[in-house]
Design brief:
With 188 residues, the protein is of the alpha+beta class. It is 17% helix and 29% strand. The strands form two sheets. The protein has an eight-stranded antiparallel β-sheet. Strands 8-9 form a two-stranded antiparallel sheet. Strand 8 and strand 9 form a beta hairpin. It is globular.
């Protein structure tokens, strides 16, 4: 857990309750190149409803109902990468496990460093669905607007590989796909 040990305080590690993993490939199927696994530590004691949503969408086996088979549709180099549109509409859709959207739980956690995982809302408060983003740097402009619920604990180098994919505007020119995902069988 190199990233975990070098970039997190003991306090941050203690606040994590579960870990979700996502496997990433880059390119069009069937020749897509698997690039590796990313592990995300989740802050279930601080934002339990948001974490439950992320876990359930990660555990869903049927493509189109959870994160499996979804793409990272937005790459803002030096800022963030975004994915999780479970409806496959290129960033215009996605549903939570609670219905179309659910309310912001709280804003206790901040976009304080690279690797923070946050809900991507629909441009206004209380519109969380399935989409999420991962910060590539500290982004205080999103504090009190987007709910942070996790942090990358392994695989930040894969996040940077995604960041470096060629884009047209903020859209990748090749598919960056979550090929598999789930809850790790360990608790922090």
């Amino acid at each position: 857990m190199g990233f975990l040990s070098c970039c997190m305080s003991d306090e941050e590690r203690r606040r994590m309750t579960e870990v979700v993993w996502i496997d990433i490939s880059i390119g069009k199927s069937p020749t897509a190149l698997p690039v590796g696994r990313v592990s995300i530590g989740l802050f279930g004691n601080l934002v339990p409803k948001t974490v439950k949503n992320f876990i359930k969408l990660s555990e869903e086996k049927e493509v189109g109902k959870g994160y499996r088979g979804t793409i990272f549709h937005r790459i803002e180099k030096g800022l963030l990468i975004q994915g999780g549109d479970t409806e496959g509409t290129g960033g215009r859709g996605g549903r939570s496990i609670y219905g179309e959207t659910f309310k912001d739980e709280n804003f206790k956690l901040k976009h304080s460093q690279p690797g923070m995982v946050s809900m991507a809302n629909r441009g206004k408060k209380d519109t969380n669905g399935s989409q999420f983003f991962i910060t590539l740097k500290q982004l205080p402009v999103f504090d009190n607007q987007h709910v942070v619920f996790g942090q990358i604990i392994e695989g930040m180098e894969i996040i940077h590989q995604i960041e470096n994919v060629e884009t047209y505007g903020n859209s990748p020119t090749v598919d960056v796909t979550i090929t598999d995902c789930g809850l790790k069988n360990i608790r922090i």
